Amino acid sequence: MAILGNIIKGVIKASEIIQPEFNAAKEQENVLKDLLSTALNTKFGKTYGFERMLESKTIAKDFRNVVPYHDYKKMTDKWWQHIQKGENDISWPGRPDYFALSSGTTGKSSKRIPVTDAMIKSIRKAGIQQVLALRNFDLPADFFEKEIMMLGSSTDLEEHNNALEGEISGISASNIPFWFQGYYKPGKEIAQIDDWDQRVQHIAEKAPEWDIGALSGIPSWMELMLQKVIEYHKLNHIHEIWPNLQVYTSGGVAFGPYEKSFNALLGKPITVIDTYLASEGFLAFQQRPETNAMKLVTDNGIYFEFIPFKPEYIQPDGSLVPHAPSLTISEVEKGQDYVLVISTVAGAWRYLIGDTIEFTDIERAEIKITGRTKFFLNTVGSQLSVNKLDDAVQFLEKKFDIQISEYTLCANRIEGEFYHCWYLGTDASVDPLQLSESLDEFLKDSNKNYKVARSKALEGVKVKIVSPSIFHNWSGSNKKKGGQVKMERVMGEERFKEWETFVDGQ
To answer: GO CC terms for this protein (predicted)?
Structure first.
């Protein structure tokens, strides 16, 4: 009998009884006040009059009228560069012990995002909230006695100006509480291995010693790890070595495009739970099994604002125009795309995180990620979000009974005419022309703007098929394998030329 598991499950279940009534708007009001009061004596707080703002009866209104939007460049040029040099009390009291290195999907030089002690606590608290939400999922008691494989970046952090640097997954793993160490795999020693291939090799060798009940990590790299374990032990599927695997906590990108190829590695269905952990904080997690939407964490050191995702508010580089109107969580509407802006306990203020979201349930504050401001494909008016592109890829998988684990595309000019040029990562043998025609028809049927664009300046769709390994090699060539690095879904023309040159060289 799973005695410990029953105890843990009982505690999780009991938390439902003592849980206060949820009021996202009130929680967000309190978070904003706490952020302003904590940072009022910083250089940022003094510059924008936080003390005076706190005396106002319209704090949220004054905050958005006085403090400008910031992207990474603007925040760094004016504020964070001083923190990176070791100065104190710039945009948050004191000086952070960590910097999260993030190049996102660009593969270019890393951003260095402050991670304060308050942010470490915020991430940990959100993780506990997610664990407590497992009461809503039908999991057996013995699940809570199994080990958890957390596949992130290396925990071997580098020191720079008296602070430690690494990707947020590595920083989080290096701060795992002592009571969780026994459950955490691959363990400290393997997690510190910097080389991705070596780390995965060690995981494969040690795999029979572990009783893994849950996985956590970015889908593309998780798939590669599972494939390595299966290959190394000559298995048919991962459940032959980890029979008690029941949960996968996905994050970083939408799981949908990976669902078919991921499930092919399993021996039986498992529960997939989506999370939204960015370098800037733990923003949301899936709370209920009946939806794949995620609940915003509204009481935990992050204040959210939402800018309607309209062309007049977005500049060509994906940043916001200064006058773009922001809404609080009490003002949003269901089904509308919004650009997400956050202010945090790490000293990010009205910070453009780069994602677009929509609310699926306002009362529960549940959202889904619809894309990236930079990756919104709007050349010649097609107005395609990454969410819609993902849908199209899943449609192809179903129609042609194939697995497409990665993709990228560009609105490319060929002999003066615009085409949507797709690269699909699959080992299947299928006619690219048929894929092109099916993609085109699906997008016409599902997106009226795309249909109009096809009747005007958008000439058509072109598809090329390449091995999924080329996508992994591309990510590895731009940045270290594993961790937070993700594939660009939509590329600009110059970046696409680099991609095509890379593909030709493989």
So the answer is: cytoplasm
- The 10 Å Cβ neighbour count of residue 14 is 12
* C-alpha to C-alpha distance for 152 and 167, rounded to whole angstroms: 8
pLDDT value at residue 26 = 95
Q: Where are the domains of the chain?
A: 1-373, 379-504
Question: Rg of the chain's alpha carbons, rounded to an integer?
Answer: 23
Tokens, residue 377: 């494909």
Task: State the pLDDT at residue 36.
Answer: 97
User: What's CA 108's distance to the chain center, in Å?
Assistant: 18
Strand, coil or helix: 322: coil
Cα(293)–Cα(195) distance, integer angstroms? 34
Average pLDDT over every residue of 151-165: 79
- CA–chain centroid gap for 316, Å, is 22
Contact 278, 167 (CB under 8 A): no
Torsion sign over Cα 73, 79, 85, 89: negative
Residue 327 above 50 pLDDT? yes
> How many percent of the chain have pLDDT more than 70?
89
The whole-model pTM stands at 0.80
Containing 32, the helix (H) or strand (E) segment is helix 24-39
The overall longest dimension of the chain from CA atoms, in Å, is 70
| C-beta neighbour count of 13 within 10 angstroms | 12
What tokens were used for 194? 């910097």
**Which DSSP category does 103 fall into?**
-
Closest CA to 153 of 176, 169, 135: 169
Give residues with Cβ within 8 angstroms of 333, minimum separation 6: 359, 362
Q: What is the tens place of the pLDDT at every residue in 66-114?
A: 999 999 999 999 999 999 888 999 999 999 988 888 755 444 557 889 9
Q: In the sheet where 98-102 sits, what is the strand order?
A: 111-115, 98-102, 163-166, 158-160
DSSP 63-83: HHHHSPPB-HHHHIIIIIHHH
**Residue with the two structure tokens 């998780």:** 222
Options 3.30.420, 1.10.3470, 3.30.300, 3.30.200; CATH of 379-504? 3.30.300
In CATH, which superfamily holds the domain spanning 1-373? ANL, N-terminal domain (3.40.50.12780)
Task: Look at residue 8 and tell me whether its pLDDT is greater than 70.
Answer: no
For the cut 70, the answer to whether the pLDDT of residue 15 exceeds it is no
Whether 425 contacts 404, CB under 8 Å: yes
